[in-house]
């Protein structure tokens, strides 16, 4: 009620302001004219308010559309960014695969065709161990590692000194600062690479000249979790060397005892690439690489015959269908180790305490289509 009275008072004041002088107040025509002007003024005020409200609504609607378009633009940019990242990743993987293929195909195109003969170089009383020459050096030195857990390396001046204990000078005894585990050691460019005892997957690079640890790495991909070969109960990581450099053969996680092949950069101990192979560790006793091809040796119950029944080529050019039956000369027990030396193209092996050299027959691989 109070608001109504206040509104009426305001109207009276407003009308009074627009009233004509007193002498015209009684003129009916003038009163009618003033009334009509007030009606027009109220109409303009209502239309102005309606126009303002309509404009505000249109501005709000336009702002919502602008916000929506901005959202779409950001979403498209995000999708484009993810697509670009995925595309860049695929390109990088393709380039890396091409680089690996070029590297592996650059210096070697041979494949194994047969085991021609064997020579027993030395016989000891130890069933497990490994022996080798440097895989790339011209040095005639022979390295002799007895047992599957030890820290002593015997360095012989040459193969004759290794065969004949009476030959002078005698071997040099090297005591390592760390013990090795298994029989997967290799000598490459003056360094001994081995699986460190008491660790699951540590690889040590040992300088044979300085007698110091040069570097070490942790081999990933499930290495060291299971035996690499069923008939080599002490070897969890088997290192190997061929024409392309340093490799590791080991089991992988969740792939049902299938072997994994990992290429290692020997200078930095970086992992270059890994391949999951179809070769199983069951009934396996040893393996080696030749020109980027993995050859796995199997036997039943750890007894002969020893034969290669699984082959994996990192370049995909060699398969089991391309190979003849690859048998080793019959030996009474499984091999403790078989390593290929790319410098003299022979296999160095240990079987039932015998240190053996196998001579090989090879041929050129078929070219990639």
From TrEMBL:
InterPro entries per the UniProt record, alphabetical: Olfac-like_dom, Olfactomedin-like_domain
Annotated GO CC locations: extracellular space
Ranges for domain Olfactomedin-like: 107-364
Keywords: Secreted, Signal
Membrane-crossing segments per the record: none
Signal peptide extent: 1-25
BP GO annotations: signal transduction
Subcellular location: Secreted
Coarse class of the protein's main subcellular location: secreted
Pfam families associated with the record: OLF
Identification of the protein by name: Olfactomedin-like protein 1
Organism: Camelus dromedarius
